[in-house]
Write a structure and sequence with these properties.
The protein has 243 residues and is an alpha+beta fold. Helix content is 28%, strand content 26%. The protein folds into two domains: 108 residues, OB fold (Dihydrolipoamide Acetyltransferase, E2P); 129 residues, no CATH class. The longest helix is centred in the N-terminal third of the chain and has 12 residues. The N terminus is likely disordered.
């Protein structure tokens, strides 16, 4: 654990690093949603712009760039989803982007996460679709999932049940992450004996070495999609029932 104590003006005590390039996590309160994929979060008394990892919405506030189609809708959804709520940030290998924004996966607590699907369903335009990506493999649920904020892992049956409760149905779906299924098994075993959320996340999410990380990336590109055999995640297209 590396604590940066050189100068209070530069220190960020809410960050924890598992190593020189290791992951980190933190809880913070969302002050406002900047647009559809960026939020302003209060972390340890400081305000930080946080850019979502894995989400890229149309622009609405970028200087010298016109407002793009569906940008205001994405921004409005983000406002309703996270503004003034507490969230857990799980940082990736790269801590900041070229604009100085923190890069993180943003997790809502379980009670807040439960509101996501009905909120998304209510925002759908007639004939619209909703693309979701959820962790798969209920057999693989581990201490890492709990620490990282994954409330559950889904089977296609449980995802279909969650969709049906909100008058949605699965139009198309696929597993993905088949070449990485073995990493879920290692993730169940590797964090054993680790104490605290940050210790578990460091053990379960760290790329270990750059060489191993590159190797896993190459293996992941060898997967045929769509496929309904097995995977680490389920990606599905949902639409309103009766459409």
């Amino acid at each position: 654990m590396l604590l940066v104590l050189v100068a209070l003006a530069l220190a960020r005590p809410w960050e924890w690093r598992g190593g020189e390039d290791g992951p980190a996590s933190a809880w913070g309160q969302v002050v406002r949603a900047v647009d559809g994929d960026t939020i302003e979060v209060r972390l340890g008394g400081e305000l930080e712009d946080v850019r979502y990892i894995g989400v890229d919405t149309p622009e609405t506030v970028k200087p010298d760039t016109p407002v793009q189609c569906f940008g205001p809708r994405a921004s409005s959804f983000n406002h309703h989803l996270v503004e003034h709520r507490w969230v857990r940030l799980v940082f990736g290998v790269e801590r900041r982007d070229i604009y100085g924004r923190l890069l993180a996966y943003v997790h809502l607590p379980p009670d807040e996460f439960a509101a996501l699907l009905p909120m998304a369903a209510s925002a759908l335009a007639p004939g619209g679709t909703l693309v979701v990506n959820v962790p798969a493999g209920r057999w693989a649920y581990s201490a890492y999932d709990q620490a990282a904020g994954h409330v559950r892992r889904y089977s296609i049956r449980s995802l279909n049940q969650a969709a049906a409760r909100n008058r949605l149905r699965i139009a198309r779906w696929t597993y993905w992450g088949l070449p990485l299924v073995l990493t879920l098994l290692f993730r169940r075993l590797w964090p054993l004996g680790k104490q605290g959320r940050d210790g578990i996340i460091s053990a379960g999410f760290s790329p270990r070495t750059r060489t191993l990380n590159r190797l896993l990336s190459l293996v992941a590109k060898c997967e045929p999609i769509p496929q309904k055999f097995l995977g680490t995640s389920i990606m599905a297209v949902l639409e309103m029932e009766g459409v």
